[in-house]
Hints:
The protein is of the alpha+beta class. The protein folds into 3 domains: 7-168, 2-Layer Sandwich (Beta Polymerase, domain 2), CATH 3.30.460; 195-281; 319-454, no CATH class. Helices cover 62% and strands 11% of the residues. It has helices at residues 7-21, 23-40, 58-67, 70-73, 77-82, 97-110, 169-183, 192-221, 226-254, 261-275, 280-298, 319-331, 336-349, 354-369, 376-381, 384-405, 415-432, 436-441, 444-454; strands at 52-55, 88-94, 113-114, 119-122, 125-131, 138-139, 145-155, 158-168. Strands 1, 2, 3, 4, 5, 6, 7 and 8 form an 8-stranded mixed β-sheet that branches. The longest helix is centred in the middle third of the chain and has 30 residues, at 192-221.
Amino acid sequence: MKTNKLQLFDLIDNTVALLTKNQPLYIKAVSEITQLLSASLYEANDQLMDLNTRIKSPVSLKEKIIRNKLYKKHESPEEILANLPDIIGIMIPCQFNKNEVEILELIKKHFYMTDNDMLYYNHKLPNIYFNLGMPQPQKQKNGHEIYRIDGQYIVDGTAVNFELQIKSLVNTFWSEIEHKVVYKNNVYIPNYGYIMEMLTAIKGNLVGIDKMLQLVHDHIQDFSTQKAEANIDINFAIAKLISDTFVAKMSESIGFTVDFKRICDLISGYILNKYKDLPVRMAQIAFLDLVHRFNEIYVREINWEQQLYLENEYVGEDKFCKIFGDRLISFMNTDFEWHIFFLILFQIESDNNNLESFTEFMRTIKINYSDKRLYEKLYTAFDKDTADKMYETITEFLAYTLSATASINIIDSNSEDIRNLIDQTISYIIEHFNSYDAFIAHRKPVQMMILEKWGA
């Protein structure tokens, strides 16, 4: 049976052919626009990240023509492309939400001349025009806001339309989620309203994350007394994210909840401590990964009654880690407070590798309690063999003492307090003993110093 091709597909095919033919023109335009914008925005260098560009693909063009019924509005490929505002896409990524409006104002500052109150230009930067008469931020179909400007660039005598978007890290992250999950997903999804509610919740979390990222940035940049306040705010924000996520998951699993605010604080502090030495942008990426993890956790099924396990035998990095680590492993399934702690930690940090997460956790504990750098005075006062034996004895007793208490608060012990106690203990040993045998024979006062601090 003979079939005739729909006329609209002839128009689509011809438009795609014209798009392909114009590729060299678009590539040149992208290069020149990027250079001009980079020069114009040098003042915002601290807020800016690398400019992202794209030229509309044939597939994307076909989808847009059909989705927006451009075949009804225009009669020729030339007319379609001339009225398409985003043949070229330029995205200016910046660090924080507040930077979006700052960069918009900077563009307005540079492109301030106009002949019609709509297209603005700078006589020193020829051929580039911005429609700065558009209200900002623009309202999207999903109800969320975006800083988006229509632009036009004259290259080789031809006007090429481009779209400029200004997006913070979290808004870039959000748009990628929405684009893949909703905008480009044509599969029928039951309970679509629930999916949209989840996306709205994710968007809300990202707004909070932006504030956290700003605090991280300020915290690293500012070495004044504001540091401590910023640290507290970040810790609170992460703890609340943990609480909001896992209270709901516990209720789903066992039908009730218990108070584990203290555990949320401890895990938040542990996470923050891991991020504190990262460069600003790496810390930002780490926090985005963290919120993505929480969004994944929110849709998981978590069984709070199921035993936790490590995939293989834990091998401690030193005797302290082996003794104390083995004890904590036994607590995972016998002490509900420790069970909650490790269940949440493993959900946040591990992808089916609890052992790796536990080993990393014990490495942090080791740094606080048994790192040899804390015991340097021993090695200054005694020969290496004697100092090694004293170190083994002290850290072994410390491990057994902490194990006996079974207190989760050891995670939150102030590292400065720990260093002071270890320093006092070593000073006492140096002052009262001249050999390992003498230390062993009269070690009770040293044990009492440790017991008074961490004993049951």
